[in-house]
Amino acid sequence: MKILKALALTSAIGSALFVANVANAGDPEAGKQKAETCLGCHGIPRYVNTYPTYHVPKLGGQHAEYLIAALKAYREKQRSHATMHANASSLSDEDIANIAAYLASAK
Fold first, then answer.
1. Distance between CA atoms of 24 and 44, rounded to whole angstroms?
2. How many CB atoms lie within 10 A of CB 95?
3. What is the rounded distance in angstroms from the CA atom of residue 37 to the CA atom of residue 49?
4. Disulfide-capable partner of 31 in 79, 89, 90, 98 (CB 3.0 to 4.6 Å)?
5. 102 CB contacts (<8 Å, ≥6 apart)?
6. What CATH architecture does domain 2-105 belong to?
7. How are the residues of the chain apportioned to helix, strand and coil, as percentages rounded to the nearest 5?
8. Which residues of 62-83 are buried (b: 16+ CB within 10 A; e: fewer)?
9. In the prediction, which pLDDT does 59 show?
10. Structure-model confidence comparison of residues 48 and 39, the more confident one
């Protein structure tokens, strides 16, 4: 029984590490080009969108895994924000990984 528990734990840890490595596998240089549109709002310190009034979050230095999850959710319209839906709708999984890698490495 202990062996099965140890194998299950090892498998779970391995899966988590695999997912983390895939999430971090983006190319920051390619992401920098794709993220130019993002920086129009997210690159301005303390930017507030006029309508609807919304404090735009700073994304530089954010965890890549979070950025990937958020962009995919916007792309699938699982998170609400029309501008983000429009921006994320044409992004591939590779684009999202690249953007996340760039923004995670940015300050």
1. 25
2. 19
3. 15
4. 98
5. 26, 28, 29, 30, 31, 32, 34, 35
6. Orthogonal Bundle (1.10)
7. 65, 5, 35
8. bebeebbbbbbebbeeeeeeee
9. 92
10. 39
